[in-house]
Structure formats: structure tokens, C-alpha cells
TrEMBL record:
Subcellular location: Cell membrane
Highest taxon above the source species: Bacteria
Record's protein name: ABC transporter permease
Family: Belongs to the binding-protein-dependent transport system permease family.
Domain ABC transmembrane type-1, residue spans: 95-300
UniProt xrefs under Gene3D superfamilies: MetI-like
Membrane topology per record: Multi-pass membrane protein
Entry keyword annotation includes Ribonucleoprotein: no
UniProt-listed Pfam families: BPD_transp_1, BPD_transp_1_N
Keywords: Cell membrane, Membrane, Transmembrane, Transmembrane helix, Transport
Amino acid sequence: MTAFLLKRLAIGFATLLLASIVVFSVLEILPGDPAQLMLGMNATEDALQALREQMGLNKPLLTRYLDWVGGLLVGDFGRSFTYSSPVIELVGERAVVSLPLAVMALVLSTVIAIPVGLFAASRRGRAADTVAMGTAQFGVAVPNFWFALILIYIFAVWLRLVPAGGFPGWQAGLWPGIKSLLLPAIALALPQAAILSRVTRSALLEVLGEDYIRTARAKGMPRRYVLWRHALRNAMIPVLTILGLQFAFLLAGTIIIENVFYLPGLGRLVFQAITQRDLIVVEGVVMLLVASVVIVNILVDICYAMVDPRLRTR
């Protein structure tokens, strides 16, 4: 198990190193002068030179990269020139919105998808299976912002049960914070649940055709017990893969939903930093998101080893 973990950690470190090179290089080759874009076309040359010096744009490319990576290793992500605040503080302020939102959406997606996948797999070829998978196909095809608009109209405008947007802050209380994130979490969870339910059904159908499942049924084990105890556990590898990918997407890819519900999350922070050409913020946030994806994938690999001990030797 130790060798398994060390191998996964080494792969994760190599991924982060490669990602840092790609992120830094892509932002460096973007056209335009960041100082000119930030100060405007009427800025004086002295002001531009001072800002370039402050941002380190006058240093050689390799020196700037090493300085940036060295800062990341000690937790110094630089200082935003747009917000006049350390990037790590901006991330902390936005992560308290995006992280709970992603967790809520992932929990909702899992709670919906796995029972639906089990239900459809246990009724393969029947009308219930067709209806369940047809509904899932509809959920895959429809974008999450459409679900968001429908949810806002029904639950915020018509029934007036939850706010249509905004975030009051956790200092306003736990329930008001959860209430403001409930509709965005559902809007994010529905398409992900549709994908996960289809993957769960496919994995279960493959497992249900195995000899040991037929043997368990021949011994008189209840169908529900066979499904939950034997079939689902052995079908969890692809399900865990999709769950890991979904959490990474929910954490990093919520720009549209955060704009629809006017939530001050990481997605909006990245979007605003890109439009304002605040490269320090973009680089820092993107690397944090990449690190979160790598960590989630390592945790998923550990879950693989717990579900199937044979994988610990690979």
C-alpha cells in the first residue's frame, strides 16, 4: 500500500509541475501588455514602467517562472493589482462559497444517481428502465443554466421559498447560507446525476452478468441484498472515477451558475480576473484548482484500492 501511495503522489507532483509550466506559458503568450490593459491607453510611460517593475514583467522569463513557483511552494500566491489584496485572501473569501456549493451538489448528485442506476439496472429492458434512462438522457442534454432559470422561476419567483440569488455570508447563519446555495446546488447536481446514473447502470449490468452474482442468487440470497452488497461494490470503480471528475468540475467549472445566481465564488473570481487581465490572480487560482483536482484524483485512487485490494499492487 505504501508503494501504491508513493507512486500516486509522484504522479501528482509531476502533474502539478507540468500544469505550472503550461499555465505560466499560456498566460505569457497572450497578446497585449498587461500593464497597458490595467492602467488604460492614457497611462504615461513612467506609470507603465513602474507597474511592469512592480509586476516583475521586466525580469527574464525563466526568472519570473522560478519566482512564481517558489512563491507557490511557500504559500505566497502574489498580490492582486486589481483588488490590492493578496491572492490567497481572495481565494479564501471565495472558497467558502464554492467549496460548500460543490460538496452540496456532489452529495445531491450521488443521492439521486446511485438509486436511479440501481433501479434501472435491476429492471433492464422494462418500461421503468426506459423511462429512467430517457429522463437521464434529457438531463445530460439540457445545460445546467436552463435548470437554474427554471428553478429560480418556480422556487424563488412563484413559490418564494428561497432567494433568487446572492449570498448573505456564513456570518448571517448556517441556514441562510445553505438556503442561498440550495438552488445553485440542485442546478449543478441534476446534469451530473444524469451522467452518474447512466454510468452506474452500465457498470451494474456488466457486474450482474458475472458468475458469482448468479451463484449468490442461486443460493437464495435476496435480490436487494445481492444488488447492494455484491453488485454495487464491484461496480464502484467507474462510479468513483466519475465522482472524482464531477467534484473537480463542480469546484472549478461553476462560472455560469455563479453568474446566474450572483454568487461570489471562485468561478466568478477567475472570470473577473481574466477580463481585467489580472494575471497574478488567474495563475494562482488556476494552480489551486489544478492542485484540488490532483488531490481528488489521489483520494479516488485510494478509494480504488479500498474497494479492490488487487489494485494496490499496480
